[in-house]
Every structure is written in C-alpha cells, then in structure tokens.
Design brief:
The chain has about 300 residues and is mostly helical. It is built from 15 helices and 2 strands. Helix content is about 70%, strand content about 0%. It is globular. It starts with a helix and ends with a helix.
C-alpha cells in the first residue's frame, strides 16, 4: 500500500472510529435505562476508561463496511458495531489483569486495573460484556427480531468458550505446554480471529445477505483474522513499546509459541502476502463496492500498531 492510499484508508478508519466513539459515549451515559436502578459513577468511569479515547476501532469498521456491501441500514450497523467494540474492550480489560497478561499500559494509557483497581476492572469488563448484548437486543437497534437474535447468538459463540474466551484459556495453557503449529492456529483463530470473523459475518447478517455471500464474508474474516494475528506477532517481535502504546516482547518472555516465532519473520511476511491475496480474491464478486474492504485487508497485514 503506497503512502497516499494508506493515508486515504486511515482517514476512512478515523472517520468510522469517530462515529463509533460518539455512539459509545451515548451508550455509556450516566442516566439509567428502563429496568436499571442506577449506574454507579466509579464503575461507569472505569468502563469509559476502558472503551473511550483510543483504538482504531477496526472490528466495528469491518462490520460497518461489510454491511455496506448489502446497502444495510447504517444506524443499525453502527449500534451493532458499538456493541462489538464493548465486547472487545471487555476482553482487553480482563486480558490486562494480573491473573492474565498483567499489563500496565493499553493504548498508551494505564490499564483499567492500574487506573482504578482489580475489582473495579473485573466489574467494568463484566458490565461491558453484558451491555454488548443489551445493545443488540434493544429495539432501538432497528432490525427484525430474528436478525437481532441471530446477531446475539453468533456473538455469544464468537466470544465464549468456543471462541475468544476459549482461545484465552488455550493461550494461558500454552505458557505451560507450548502447542504445535496446529494448536497455535486453533488458539489464534479463537482468541483473535473469532471476533474479526464475526464482524464480517455480522455485516452480512444485518444486510440480509444470502448463504453464499455470508460464507464468503466469513472466509474473508478468517483470512484477515489470521493476517491480523501474524502482523501482531511480528510487531511484538520488532516494534517498540512507544510505537504500540503497550509492552512488547511479551510472547518470547512468556515462552509462548507463535507462528512468526516458529517459522521466522521472512516466512511470516510471505504468509501475510498470501492471506491478503486470498482476502482480495474472496471479495471479487462484490466489485468496486468492496474497494474499502480490500484496502482493509492490506492495511491489516501492513499495520504498524
């Protein structure tokens, strides 16, 4: 990706992130909703710390761009995208805890358990997780009830024991017994890939896509999910903490096996190129409507954050 194209894409990503940020601020308002008794100020502050004021919002971006392929209602897609970001940020808050990765920095700021305390961080993560499903279930997410139900079900599976949470469990186990290559691929497909796949599929679900197009978007999500993790592994090996806004070199220090560590940097970069090509081929039937998603695939592979 040349510099001009990169800047154009980053501008689109930033515009999308601003829209998601505005929606998240609205959803994290201090006023309780119908059925809520109160929103404790300290807990709400910790939730806001974990969600607002940082991040590229890549998963929401992929969801909204996938929905655009099918001319889906933009406001509904934005609300589902915000729900996905709440769930993603819950996972980051919990991943950063001393019992997990024990990180002090996230997006260049103190992690939630450092800015507040461990108990508040756990509750903030729990609250963001449940809020994600609340947002999608809400009638203000103006989609047919069956569509909202499917989005909730798919997100539960992407986030739960068969997806992201299960991947985190495998990641913890990998510190004791390093997995083989097949195990690494499964771990990464669950911990990182599941929510990226969901983002792409959810856009198709919102847009009422047929089975073939949904499967195509799922495969696209799988390809860029693996590319995202490979790029992440390379950054952990080569980037500075200042550039990433978080600690680096953690995988090697913890003795964790990664595909990049197993095969080397040159192999990983060849794999990234192949995954980008695969992703672009999957989008061919959508023509120019998928131009931004093609850029997203390249950006994920070449990212520096």
């Amino acid at each position: 990706m040349d510099e001009t194209t990169k800047q154009t894409f980053e501008a689109l990503l930033a515009e999308s992130a601003e829209a998601v940020e505005a929606m998240l601020r609205e959803l994290l308002d201090a006023r309780p909703l119908d059925g809520e008794v109160a929103r404790p100020a300290g807990l709400l502050a910790a939730m806001r710390h974990g969600v607002l004021g940082g991040g590229k919002r890549l998963r929401p971006f992929l969801l909204m761009e996938s929905a655009r392929l099918f001319d889906a209602a933009s406001q509904a897609a934005l609300r589902v995208a915000a729900a996905l970001e709440c769930l993603h940020c819950y996972s980051l808050i919990h991943d950063d805890l001393p019992a997990m990765d024990d990180d002090d920095l996230r997006r260049g700021r103190p992690t939630v358990h450092r800015a507040f305390d461990e108990a508040t961080a756990i509750l903030a993560g729990d609250s963001l997780l449940t809020l994600a499903f609340d947002i999608i279930a809400d009638r203000r997410t103006a989609l047919p009830p069956d569509t909202r139900l499917e989005l909730i079900s798919r997100l539960a599976r992407a986030a739960g024991m068969g997806g992201m949470a299960g991947g985190q469990a495998l990641d913890i186990a990998a510190e004791r017994t390093p997995p083989d290559e097949k195990g690494i691929i499964a771990l990464q497909a669950m911990k990182t890939g599941a929510l990226i796949r969901y983002a792409c599929e959810a856009g198709a679900v919102i847009g009422g896509a047929d089975t073939a197009d949904r499967e195509r978007l799922c495969a696209f999500g799988d390809a860029i999910g693996l590319a995202f993790q490979l790029a992440d592994d390379l950054l952990d090996m080569t980037a500075s903490p200042e550039a990433l806004g978080k600690a680096t070199g953690k995988d090697a220090a913890a003795g964790k096996a990664t595909l990049a560590g197993l095969h080397g940097e040159a192999w990983a970069r060849r794999q990234l190129a192949g995954l980008v090509q695969q992703a672009e081929e999957l989008l061919e039937p959508f023509g120019e409507k998928a131009a931004v998603l093609r850029l997203a695939a390249r950006f994920v592979a070449e990212r520096e954050w």
